[in-house]
Sequence to fold (233 residues):
Amino acid sequence: MSELWEDIKNAYFSYNGMGTNVFFLFVAIFYLLITNKKRQRNLLIYEIFGILFLMTPGIANGILKMSGQNTDHWMVYGILNIVAVVGVVMTDYLINIPTKKEKIIVIVIYILLLQTGMGLNYTSQHLEFITNSYKISNEVMEIAEQLEFVEKPRVLAPEQVAGELREYDTRFAVIYGEGLSFTQENLEQLQMETDSYGCNCLVINSEYDNIEFFNSIGFSKIYNTEHYEVYAK
Fold:
């Protein structure tokens, strides 16, 4: 049970750090409870059951571990539809305010509350144009741009790199999925894997780089990043 609560606590603070404060959800649910409007009842019931799921050990652990990555525990809060619920409640409260002056005051308060929920984090990076719309790391972006020069790239790469390459361009034939072998710490085994999968591109962690070996099996280094080496035939 203590492990479950630790997971929920870490997920809670991680989700808040991403721009949506869960505290606003609790305020919104309280508002729905005291107003008890029929058109909002289903929304209220859905959110209450969502919170109960997070507090039920078997179900909560199942949801938290569904992604298979401990760093993604914050995603469990996606079942609560926090933005939608808070938006409905804020709008409902606003339209029931009688005077225009009071509406303006409430709107200003809303803006301040929302900005506080996002941590008042104003830096130059928030004002820059988006240059990476693929939501992948800069290193993988660099690798993908280099692979575009390879004719019909068929890539064997570490799991994280392979997954992000698929997000970048589905035209890349990336060897990726359960049951596939990628043994970069054993070069002879890695050679067998590249031959078996018919790969003409190879991405490995820099710590396993051996340029003489890869040259001997027909690969040439075409690029390198801080953590990865990129080879192609």
